[in-house]
Amino acid sequence: MDLGKRLRSRGYRVTPQREVIYRVLQENEGKPLSLDDIHSLACEKRPGLGLTTVYRTLDLFRELEVALPVHLHGDSQYYEINEGKHHHHMVCLSCGDVELLEACLIEEIEDIVRDGSDFMITGHCMSLFGYCPDCLERGRGKGSR
Amino acid sequence: MDLGKRLRSRGYRVTPQREVIYRVLQENEGKPLSLDDIHSLACEKRPGLGLTTVYRTLDLFRELEVALPVHLHGDSQYYEINEGKHHHHMVCLSCGDVELLEACLIEEIEDIVRDGSDFMITGHCMSLFGYCPDCLERGRGKGSR
DNA sequence: CTTATTGCAAACCATTTGCATCCGG
DNA sequence: CCGGATGCAAATGGTTTGCAATAAG
Q1: Long-range contacts of B13-21 (CB under 8 A, 24+ apart)
Q2: Is the predicted pLDDT of residue B40 greater than 50, yes or no?
Q3: Is the pTM higher than 0.70?
Q4: Which of A65, B32, B132, B139 is 20 to 30 A away from residue B82, measured at CA?
Q5: Do A61 and A108 fall within a single domain?
Q6: CATH number of the domain enclosing A11
Q7: CB contact under 8 A, B109 and A105
């Protein structure tokens, strides 16, 4: 599970940029990061690291399944480190906070699909939207946009 | 449930462009369309209809909940008409075909969330990925990208 | 008539590409 | 050394904005 091995075994090189970006993902396990987030955080550790490198490194990490793309509401792409623990996300519509949800009903869903169609399911994505406890408490539960 | 009423009651005007775009969505119920899809189809009915108008009209339709944004794999935004029938999608990774899935386990998921967190769930999205019966038959079930 | 709507062209901006330089192995 | 990786600058392409002309009510 060490980055160097994973890179070398596929013929890729181990560079400080890749290590820094990996570290950023590791240190934010459970918190999906946008490419800009990753860039800023990586720049703190290695000033001058180019945004282009972040884009290219995340394409690579996704290919190697070192990182997983996360689909949240909105346009921008988020990533998080792949620790092999499947989970979903709950996104607060008020503050944008993301909470993890370890439960997953994919097996039940696959059963339903199997009974109703010949589709072969190989993957899925799911996100929940709502309001986090903090925002509910502060009365930002509904009206807010 | 007529478009004219829905528009006028909110102070918007009924234009041929909006009617054409609405008709395109109606005629493709169950098939998520990209903005370009909508534009091409709308242009068949009304040549010269601008792409900008498609963007603006879908923002409006989304606001009025006449259309719903659909999150599939990939980058582009898809839309489908909102007929009030909640459902999800199964996307074929080989041919891109989209099949509807009327089943939804949101209530079960909400139960799980309620037991494990104080998050208040108000919405969700889910998509399944895999291979459609046709592609499986043609042996495009796995290896293909 | 009044003003929302449209369509065009220009502006925007996130992402990608080309390329000279750099550096991992 | 050699070829992959990086960072910059330029190109790209989808989406948005400004604005004059058009048309809904």
Answers
A1: B16/B46, B17/B42, B17/B46, B17/B49, B17/B53, B17/B57, B18/B57, B18/B60, B20/B45, B20/B46, B20/B49, B21/B49, B21/B53, B21/B54, B21/B57, B21/B58, B21/B61
A2: yes
A3: yes
A4: B132
A5: no
A6: 1.10.10.10
A7: yes
